[in-house]
Amino acid sequence: MMNSKNALMIQGTGSGVGKSIITAALCRHFYNKGHKVAPFKAQNMANNAFVTKDGGEIGRAQAFQAEASGVEPHVTMNPILLKPCSDNSSQVIIMGKLKTTSNAKDYYDQFDEHLSCVTDAFTKLHKQYDLIIMEGAGSPAEINLKSVDLVNMKAAEIANASVLLVGDIDKGGVFAWLKGTLDLLTQIERDRVKGVIINKFRGDIDILLPGLKQFEDLTGKPVLGVIPYIKNLTVDEEDSIPAWQYPATTKNIQPLDAAVIWYPRIANCTDMSPLAHDPAVSMRYVSYPSQLGNPDMIILPGTKNTLADLADLKDRGLDKTILELHEQGTVLLGICGGFQMLGKTLQDPDHIEGSITHEEGLNLFDKETTWQKEKITRQVESHTISGPLFKPGLKVEGYEIHMGLTKFNNGFVPMFEGEEDGYPLGITNKDGTIIGTYLHGFLDNDIFRNHLLNHVRQKRNLPHPEKVFDYKFFRKQQLDQLEQQICRSLDMNQIETFISN
User: Fold this and answer.
1) Exactly one of 74, 336, 402, 487 is catalytic; which is it?
2) 27 is known as an active-site residue
3) Mean pLDDT, to the nearest integer, of 349-373?
4) Which of 78, 161, 181, 401 fits a 20 to 30 Å CA distance from 303?
């Protein structure tokens, strides 16, 4: 147990109650107040991932929280990342690197080793920052898992952190949820909980007030704030799609219609965030051919199990419709797993990814992808070269996360300078209507993204917007608004005493 009290932990009554965004808001609050602050989540289960500068893989939510803290993401902020690749197995990422693929029982058998990893990571982070805002996972009251739960009360014990317990009133039953959680904790754990937060409230607060008083009388725990249901704020989702439709908000021009293919194991959907919030783009996720319509662009995103999701895509008949729409003029963009699907064949002879050995791709590029045990994770910086899409010299940044190695043959045009391990980072066909890249996050660059979207608009005879969407400024603005909307609803004076005493 650490001696200092410079750690605060957000735990929840269950998944999806708002732990990640409240953690981000508190990181932003203390960063704005001049603290050297960092996020920490001992163990995360998510397929939305980020790659740090040194090539380590962490949960995207912790990268977002680091951004809120004004610091560079590092693997010590999320020492264990579990990435589900089937219903009963996950990749186990330890300190940023793939260790194994495991089922739950085998993973829990390594509890002591994982606990040591978490303790070491927190100790390193603790030495570098004067305040750590920690996040739990799910609920600390899963009594069947208490002995192997290292992300909730065990992590709080390691850090000697005060705990704030969050409940989601929008789901209903928040008081029972909060009290039931407290009742299932040990006395030592209950003593660590300094208060509760009620999240996602809508309605007349006066009707809620008697319940707050009664709850405090029943539990002896103060209600530290009631956060309203917050709409229209951008946060990087931990492991889900926050909405299915993102309509354009610019009214004076016809928006670009972007359809994103949904798969059962979709990953890194944060790649689409710049499109989702661009006022001149209307973006939507689609599951079936009948939903596609006639989009200007179809995006095949990343996936945690490419062969299984490609087989599922075919079962739904999306492969034929995608090819038909491309023939009619729709531009295709494949990212990572979606990029692999654009090739001729995908092979996993050693069943590294799953049970499927071989799958025929969409055959739009002359390339074959084979899975290997080594996982490629790295940040990339490059520039565009002259071709059907871009003028030369535009900066592009992103990161790779994949286990498939692709052999490229003929019939493509490279988009970026240089190669990594003998393969181009991004390619297109000769007329720029099929685009593929292994890079995640490359659409975050405003100038680069605007050139790409204007290329699609030119192909589809759409007008260009007068103003380029400034995504970097938009994210900063959203972070500050998130902090303001959440922290003004909390008793921050009381909360600050929990990290100063």
Assistant:
1) 336
2) no
3) 93
4) 78
